[in-house]
Amino acid sequence: MKFLSEYRDPALARRYLEEIKKTVTRPWTIMEVCGGQTHSLVKNGILSMLPEEINMVHGPGCPVCVTPLHLIDKAIYLAEEKGAILCSFGDMLRVPGSQKSLLEAKAKGADIRILYSPLEAVKLAQQHPDRQVVFFAVGFETTAPANALSVIHAHRLGLNNYSILASHVLVPPAIEAVMEDEESHIQGFLAAGHVCTIMGTLEYYPLVERFKVPIVVTGFEPVDLLQGILMTVKQLESGEAKVENQYARMVREEGNPRAQEIIYQVFEVTDRLWRGMEVIPMSGYQVKEAFAEYDAMRKFKVNIPEVPENEDCMAGEIMKGIKKPYECPHFGKKCSPETPIGAPMVSSEGACAAYYHFSGMVNQAKEQPA
């Protein structure tokens, strides 16, 4: 496959690494926003190959990781107390709620199913007209079109037993929140290519103008990331701050207008609570009043209070780029994929999971006192 070979080309990767080393003259801190970028950087050993002047830190771009405890509790409530067939992507099942995870609820008899598309959940609602089916709609802008489309499809079919528990979050407000944090020292960003495939790059220009930081949209393969880091370093070294698009094979400035149209047909922007980051204004999607019958929160009148996050989990500091996963005293000890304290150790896009599986630091952490 062309893209798999071209963007994993060792010779090309080495050339970008050499150019980065020749270009950088002073320390720079760059955040890769998306968890998929984090996993690629760690899994492919890129972090250890970069010059020591470049400090890559990990951002809040893992939708599972930023989903707060009370939303997990609400999903469990719908399955256990309301008897709904609760459908979810697999990553969500092992994320701890305040009392238990969805997987634990499933083990105790709740009808919780792993699906790969919300349209599968709509089909399930067709097949079980006597049951309520709820899809746990988690994700950034990337998954919003499919979740919105499931609502539109259910509406066209006249289904009254399908709804979504919406937990969508948005990238630009998260970058803004990171930059406004007093502890933040981020000097440049690698923006998530898949989000920009949907939304385009126009949303990033005001952020660059306000905070004077480069934002480079990248893909997820090793060559993508190395080229994106080089583009960012060149801007930083020359004192520039602009939006650049490394992922031009997929991303257009205007994004995907049809996908955006579908999103805004069903969703509207709202304030959203992020795990470890508190409420970020206008940073999420909620179902519009016109589709209220497909909003599980309204439909089932879910009223579960917010609960404090686990004090042992450093998720907020990690996702704001303040600390690295291995700096947590519980990393690889009290907190592991089998016994997670928080979502970043569970999700396939979580920074803690990336370091646990691919960095080789787990044994070092186990040798250190907790």
Word description of this protein:
With 370 residues, the protein is α/β, with parallel strands linked by helices. The chain has a domain at 66-170 and 255-299: 3-Layer(aba) Sandwich (Rossmann fold), CATH 3.40.50.11740. It has helices spanning 2-6, 10-23, 35-43, 46-49, 63-66, 69-80, 102-107, 118-127, 144-157, 171-180, 193-199, 205-211, 222-238, 257-266, 296-299, 315-319, 351-358, 362-367; strands at 28-34, 54-61, 85-88, 112-114, 133-139, 162-169, 188-192, 215-218, 243-245, 267-274, 278-287. The strands form 2 sheets. The protein has a 6-stranded mixed beta sheet, with helices on both faces. α2 (10-23) packs parallel to α13. The radius of gyration is 21 Å and the shape is globular. The termini are far apart.
What would the keywords be for this entry?
370 residues; alpha/beta; Rossmann fold; six-stranded mixed beta sheet; five-stranded parallel beta sheet; 11 strands; globular
Largest beta-sheet characterization: 6 strands, mixed
Strands, total number: 11
CATH class label of the domain at 66-170 and 255-299: Alpha Beta
List segments where confidence is low: pLDDT < 50 over at least 5 consecutive residues: none
Strand content: 15-25%
**What value does the average pLDDT take?**
93
Global outline: globular
User: Termini, distance in Å?
Assistant: 46 Å
In the CATH hierarchy, what is the superfamily of the domain at 66-170 and 255-299? HypD, alpha/beta domain 2
Strand order of the largest sheet: 4-3-5-6-11-10
Brief rundown of the structure:
By secondary structure, this protein is α/β, with parallel strands linked by helices. Helix content is 41%, strand content 18%. Helix 2 packs parallel to helix 13 and helix 8 runs parallel beside helix 9.
